[in-house]
Amino acid sequence: MLSAIAALAPLSLIGVALTARSWWEGLTMAFGYLLALGVLRAWSLDGYPRHAIFALVFTAATWTADSLRGTTFIGFVPLALVGGMLLLRTGRWRIWVGFFAIGVAAIGASGFAFRPPTWILFASYVVVPFIGTLFVFGVILTCEQAWLIARRLDRAKQIEADLAVARERVRFAGDLHDIQGHSLHVIKLKAALARKVMRTDPDRADAELGEIRRIADETITATRSLAYAHHELNLVAELENAKRLCEAAGLSVEARFDGDPGSATHPLLAQVLREATTNLLRHAHPTSVWITASPVAVEVANDGLGTGPDDVPDDGAEMSLRGLARLRARVENVDGTLEITRTPERFIVAARIPADSTERTKEMM
Prior knowledge:
There is one protein chain. The radius of gyration is 34 Å and the shape is elongated. It has a 5-stranded mixed β-sheet with strand order 1-2-3-5-4, with helices on one face. The chain contains 11 helices and 5 strands, in the order H-H-H-H-H-H-H-H-E-H-E-E-H-E-E-H. It is of the alpha+beta class. The longest helix is centred in the middle third of the chain and has 79 residues, at 119-197.
């Protein structure tokens, strides 16, 4: 719609400047365009604003006055703009658009009641308004169809992003189930066995209880490792997974790994990559994503509506950064850094952990 106004308004205003006989006529015409712009600003695909009817009445009255005075024959354009937008909200606009164009032309012909008709006047006040109204409506219809397509694509993109996040959650849930499901089942069986032999074979019951404690400790360690990205989280694998997630959401992705893929990497780097990817899919609206990883660093940048730590516009965006804030504390605990940067073009999450910290972590594990 904005394209329609931007394309038609300059030409129409030039026509008014060339044909208007007074500043009052030009001012009235400009006010009609402002009303059309006001209708456009409050426009939606679900209906029209209340003041659209007033705009329609005012522009119709202005065009009628111009026709009766025989001043400018371009005065029909605001009426065509407002009327065209209103017609698109009717269920039978294909029928009504013809009648509307005839009505605009009929208003132009009303001026012949006060002056003799000529071929030039007939062409200026009847033919041009009729054809011009159809042309304006065609421009509005084209813009609205493009708007509809863009909204459908945006919804499809959002659905794909939600599905990508859901798949990631399912994958994480599967990892958690793999860790805890088998262990809990074994604990259940051994607890039942220990209870059964508690009176008849106390030594056997004590051994089973010790085994239960060992399995519980191992399960807790494995679960903590999963939460802290130590369990089966590999930076190269996470890089490929992040690329697939972004591509599934319809984003343009550039991902690369600088260095030897077999080199030791700190598991927190993979966790930062996973968290940053999830955040941009859920809370930003990017079109392109750039991911760079190495054995000691990872950087995730996108051109969506990200938020920086010093520029948080709403509570939802602040919530999206809490996971990264927790990761920042953990990265700093291993002498690393995690920076969140916002520029007019990109939102960047960058983490770096020295190689010696990675070696110390490997030795502790």
